Amino acid sequence: MNPIVTVQDAVTAFADFMEPTDAELDAIEREMPVILADVELLDAHIVTLDRIPTELDNRRIRRARRRALAARVALLNRSAGASLPGGAA
Length: 89
Fold this sequence. Notes:
This protein is mostly helical and 89 residues long. It has helices spanning 2-12, 22-47, 55-83. Helix 2 runs antiparallel to helix 3.
């Protein structure tokens, strides 16, 4: 069992350095609406994997796709607005 302990020490030796920075956490927070919208779209597709999609399934997929696209557009608009000087869009 010594090799397991040795490997564990090697893996956890750098644990303090592997934590995300505040900037990375802020970036994740900004992207969270996009991530959640993509998860919703994947859920809508997963439901239809083992059967033929019904009209309700198709509506759910379309709605989830629109939400995912809207979330991406909103993220891009926020990013573009933040990068332009003087607040001009």
